[in-house]
Specification:
3 helices, alpha+beta, 125 residues
Length: 125
């Protein structure tokens, strides 16, 4: 799949499209980072589908392989795509839903509760 087809697929499902983004789903982003394209970064959706529908933005936290990151605000999650990952909570961002171009699965409820607990500790709630 070429880069042009990714954009056409993304725009077809963008705000007002027929897909619903839900809390706990894992998507691949297509965004700029440091002046260059960052293709294929998995992110975990943290916001509810109601807030995404109202604003057009999704609150997401990036995911990385465990061997690359470890530390307090990182929550280890079960194997994703055959590899262990962590959710990097201090890099949580609001991204336009149009750049979440591929749903690759979801985080089980038990894992999502751990991520939300880590987010509460990070924000001191």
């Amino acid at each position: 799949m070429g880069r042009e087809s990714r954009h056409s697929q993304t725009e077809a499902y963008g705000n007002g499209g027929n897909r619903m983004i839900h809390k706990g789903e894992i998507y691949i982003t297509d965004r700029y980072r440091g002046g260059k394209k960052d293709y294929g970064r998995p992110v975990l959706v943290l916001s509810s589908s109601d807030s995404i529908r109202e604003t057009g933005f999704a609150l997401v936290a990036p995911m990385a392989r465990r061997e690359r990151f470890s530390g307090a605000p990182h929550v280890p999650v079960s194997d994703f795509k055959g590899r262990p990952y962590v959710v990097i909570l201090e890099r949580t961002k609001a991204l336009p839903e149009r750049i979440l171009w591929a749903n690759t699965g979801y985080l089980p409820r038990r894992e999502m509760i751990r991520v939300e607990g880590g987010l509460c500790r990070l924000l001191e709630l």
